[in-house]
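Class, study these two lines:
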Amino acid sequence: MNVIIIGGGQVGAYIANLLLESKHHVMVIENREAVLEKIREELPLSNIIAGNGTDPNVLEAAGIKTADVVAAVTGADEANLVATTIAKFEFGVKRVLARVNNPKNAWLFDAGMGVDVVLNQANLMAHIIVEEMNLDQMMMLLKLGGSNYSIAQFKACAGARAVGQRMGDLSMPAHSSFVAIDRGGEIVMPSDDVIIEEGDNLVIFADEATMDVVHALCTGAKAC
């Protein structure tokens, strides 16, 4: 899969690393020099383009004509909307994702602006607060707009049922699956033989109905 990520900050770099670990082709577009310096230490130089993600020429240089997905995840809603509109309507990208930074702008992020999936982080944080979930144990990464599915990160705590178990032996609830493990900064891809260790940050895809079950399985009753 060919993916273009516009914005090389924390969110963009995290997504890029996960996709590269899964052997997808990824190009990250970033125009801030300080951010470029940082991601040049984290990502292969061949996967980074210095430029403005709202510039059609830069997008073409990144390979947008053959892109399967474009994700606009900068910290500026205006830039994300311009980028998604260009990606969808000028280049005809099939799947376009956009990050919403200011919840007051969420109503703008729709199909009319070329957005297929909205990553509304403010909405996710509100959901966590309402559900009274422990932020030391769980962090929502993104919600797939218009669906009940989210990607969340759980910290594996001592005493949790998942700790010390092979992934292949875990009885994960329906409508949930492992995406990756962040183990001290090293990304470990899921497989049946991987053993979950205390302190692992488990990135999991699940729907709302099973999120609490996954939370209990991975973290147990106590904070860690």
